[in-house]
Amino acid sequence: MPGVIVKRVFAVALAAAALAVPAYAQQQQKDDEPLVQIEKQKKMDREEVEKQYSRTMQRTSAKGATEAVKVDPWSNMRGPDDPKAKK
């Protein structure tokens, strides 16, 4: 009987160790691995795009608020005697 119990305990311990090895291996990623480098580069690219987008939005909103440009699409169709051209 004691031999059966020892075998079961050993089998359970072996199964637990076998299940823990992949999880342990995933935790030990080094910075010089290719996949880690790719993920870091993607993160940096996303941050750079976000910064560029923010700067562009600030520029366009600032220009739109300060420059109220009136556009007259018919200006080249009027003759020299029209009242709009004299103003």
β-strand number: 0
* β-sheet strand percentage: under 5%
Shape: rod-shaped
Proportion of residues in helical segments: over 70%
Judged by helices, strands and strand pairing, the structural class is mainly alpha
How would you describe this structure to a colleague?
The protein is mostly helical and 87 residues long. The protein is built from 3 helices and no strands. The protein has helices at residues 2-27, 34-66, 83-86. It is rod-shaped.
Summarize the structure.
With 87 residues, the protein is mainly alpha-helical.
Please describe the topology of this protein.
Blueprint: H1 2-27, H2 34-66, H3 83-86
Keywords for this structure?
3 helices, 87 residues, single chain, mainly alpha
